[in-house]
């Protein structure tokens, strides 16, 4: 019995020494959950919290770097607009002529390209001003051709010439038109020839009421002249400028103006049983596909705009050519808005007689033939968020829309401002009705007329005021970025301190005190050796032990 108790106690001492050896070797108080269940659970929780905190630190660091890049880009943008503003002030100099303004326009055209380049700044493979659509650039500088306001003539006998049409050529051209036939009695120009650029090749044109087709989508009307005008030459050049535009994911120009119904006041009368006809085409389709949808019966009591929207989307999703291509939405002011879901060119076609059914909805007549905007624009102006700590989300990006939009009206946009400035430098001003409203063509483009005096006045008045507003918007956005940067720096400091605190708690929970454990092991070793010596004297072996 005495021997058994001794062996049991010795085994306990050996296990204690083994535990101390393992703790000293690993530096940890426990090796498995059964060693200390409570502290093991606490240590596991602390490890999870520290790992999560380290990821939050990476998020914060990435956001700080992102916003540093954003701040640099906005600083460059401010410098560009300061330079443009100085050029506008110079353009108002009474001593400046058309040549000086042309040089100013050429420089501003380059600035348009520079603005596009800044707004397409990327960080870590993503465009920083593209919202959640970071894989494709948000804006681009598109070449546009402007028809000159004035046609020069080399004679005093011929009448003035007026240009019309939209230039469809691939590059800027200089035109010369030579009168080859005049009716003596009336002075009507009957025949003419034209050439482009070098004037070496003359092409005959067809006359119709004094109007000549001179190619590339252009026509020129030569007013009545005298017989002496025969052989005289009219000349002009197509101006090539740059325009800032939003981009679809495939690089094509994005339409952003909303296409929506009038305010819906009577669902039953204006929508029930009516037809909506759409045309859809992509950039490679020569002939658009046309398809109509027939709306349901909304004459029953209680039918609302939401019922109409749900019905339209249901019909679109069951269509073979429209499914997944567009969507209808209800706006806050009780309109029905249509948006394209991709890069397709989609329009609502007019109400015309004959099959297939046409758009007969009364509330949609003002939206006819307008290209539907893409939902990609929503992605460009959407906000990115990151998690700074558990449950704390912070938006950190600035979209191209935030930078370009400096007011509430449609024209309060840097894209339109730069386009107006270039037009004014070309001596053209917006056409307005009697109420002062800007006139547009069927495609929504602003109509311009030649008026050098008003154009110069616009440059140094309205354009300069709008330029100041645009610069204020850029400064406002930059200050917001700076405020977010300060918050991120504070969050980073707090995160690092929190990580230190949790690491300290974890160390106290699972790490050993090496000095203490060394003393305990020495004590345990002394006890073990003493017990061996004592047992050797107390438990003397007998002859019976050997016999067993």
UniProtKB/TrEMBL annotation:
<dbReference type="InterPro" id="IPR001492">
    <property type="entry name" value="Flagellin"/>
</dbReference>
<dbReference type="Pfam" id="PF00700">
    <property type="entry name" value="Flagellin_C"/>
</dbReference>
<keyword id="KW-0282">Flagellum</keyword>
<comment type="similarity">
    <text>Belongs to the bacterial flagellin family.</text>
</comment>
<feature type="domain" description="Flagellin N-terminal">
    <location>
        <begin position="1"/>
        <end position="132"/>
    </location>
</feature>
<dbReference type="GO" id="GO:0009424">
    <property type="term" value="C:bacterial-type flagellum hook"/>
</dbReference>
<dbReference type="InterPro" id="IPR001029">
    <property type="entry name" value="Flagellin_N"/>
</dbReference>
<dbReference type="GO" id="GO:0071973">
    <property type="term" value="P:bacterial-type flagellum-dependent cell motility"/>
</dbReference>
<keyword id="KW-0975">Bacterial flagellum</keyword>
<keyword id="KW-0969">Cilium</keyword>
<dbReference type="InterPro" id="IPR046358">
    <property type="entry name" value="Flagellin_C"/>
</dbReference>
<feature type="domain" description="Flagellin C-terminal">
    <location>
        <begin position="465"/>
        <end position="539"/>
    </location>
</feature>
<dbReference type="GO" id="GO:0005198">
    <property type="term" value="F:structural molecule activity"/>
</dbReference>
<keyword id="KW-0966">Cell projection</keyword>
<dbReference type="InterPro" id="IPR013384">
    <property type="entry name" value="Flagell_FlgL"/>
</dbReference>
<dbReference type="Pfam" id="PF00669">
    <property type="entry name" value="Flagellin_N"/>
</dbReference>
<protein>
    <submittedName>
        <fullName>Flagellar filament 30.7 kDa core protein</fullName>
    </submittedName>
</protein>
